[in-house]
Design brief:
By secondary structure, the chain is an all-alpha fold. The chain is built from 11 helices and 3 strands. Strands 2-1-3 form a 3-stranded mixed beta sheet. α2 packs antiparallel against α3, α3 runs antiparallel to α4 and α3 crosses α10. It is globular.
């Protein structure tokens, strides 16, 4: 039996993404909704990158990190959205084995990097509020570049490990993924070999990354809160803490959905539920992030007005 399975394994050269099971009319509606979301995501994040690049007043560490956040949102939504949109209009919904591996690799790279970057942004706010006199030294241009580079390195390591473990599994004839993109839970589910080690690796790495980054975020905001509460005036406290509001909103959205998806042992048991959550963090959050930062941030709104007035 095992020899037969091994022979079948060599024949699996593509996967079928089952996606969202819905009538043709609803598929068309979902296509339009997903297309609109992706268009808003692309326009919003590219606009954020351009505004920060063009306005000299936004050449600070906080906006350097924000520009990188927009770039990551744009990248990992682009890894997922075009293929998902194409599958809504296709009857076959196929993706090659190598294409599946590439999609998962880049998705894991960008999402993990974003998690570390959000932690870096919390540390930046901590440095600005709790150590304002040392801030130019602690967050110099060199340090900022090193922190972003370190985030990508951590994302790359996780992506390589996850992709290596996942695509070393054997798929014995069954190639239908009950998902709209190539993700670990769906791939583990159709493997014909024992996946206990893969599930442990998925849970352990995800939990480690989330624990490390959330610890940095929580500790940073604990110090920030302590510092803000020492400010005598209510207006001063509100003004100081308002610079953190957008980041707190983005962190809550991102980590809430990622934790639900990957950092719990039963995460791979409910594919329909996972699809809904996956839509949120692969498409909705990248669309919301630039809106959150632009609507809640006076500096960004003022920069947009200045750029428009020049024209």
């Amino acid at each position: 039996m095992k020899n037969e399975l091994n022979r079948n394994y060599s024949e699996v050269t593509e996967f079928i993404l089952l996606g969202f099971r819905a009538p043709p009319k609803l598929q068309s509606l979902l296509f339009l909704v997903f297309l609109l979301i992706y268009m808003v995501t692309v326009v919003g994040n590219i606009s954020m990158i351009i505004v920060i690049k063009m306005d000299s007043r936004l050449q600070t560490p906080m906006y350097f990190f924000l520009r990188n956040l927009s770039y990551l949102d744009l990248c990992y939504s682009t890894v997922i959205a075009p293929k998902t949109l194409a599958n809504f209009l296709s009857n076959e919904k196929k993706i090659s084995y190598n294409g599946c591996a590439a999609q998962f690799f880049f998705f894991a790279l960008f999402v993990t990097t974003e998690g570390f970057l959000l932690a870096v942004m919390a540390f930046d706010r901590f440095s600005a509020i709790c150590s304002p006199f040392l801030y130019p030294v602690n967050m110099s241009q060199k340090v900022c570049v090193q922190l972003v580079t370190g985030s990508y390195i951590c994302g790359g390591i996780n992506s390589i490990v996850q992709t290596g473990f996942t695509f070393s599994l054997r798929f014995c004839g069954e190639n239908r993924l009950d998902h709209f993109f190539c993700d670990v839970p769906a791939l583990i589910k159709i493997s014909c070999v024992d996946t206990f080690v893969n599930e442990i690796v998925l849970f352990t790495l995800s939990a480690l990354i989330i624990f490390t980054t959330t610890t940095v975020i929580l500790v940073s905001y604990a110090y920030i809160l302590s510092t803000v509460l020492k400010i005598p005036s209510t207006r001063g406290r509100s003004k100081t803490f308002s610079t953190c509001g957008s980041h707190i909103a983005v962190v809550s959205l991102f980590y809430g959905t990622v934790f639900f998806m990957y950092a719990q042992p039963g995460a791979i048991s409910s594919p329909e539920q996972n699809k809904i959550v996956a839509v949120f963090y692969t498409l909705i959050i990248p669309m919301l992030n630039p809106l959150i930062y632009s609507l809640r941030n006076r500096d960004v709104k003022d920069a947009v007005k200045r750029i428009l007035c020049r024209k």
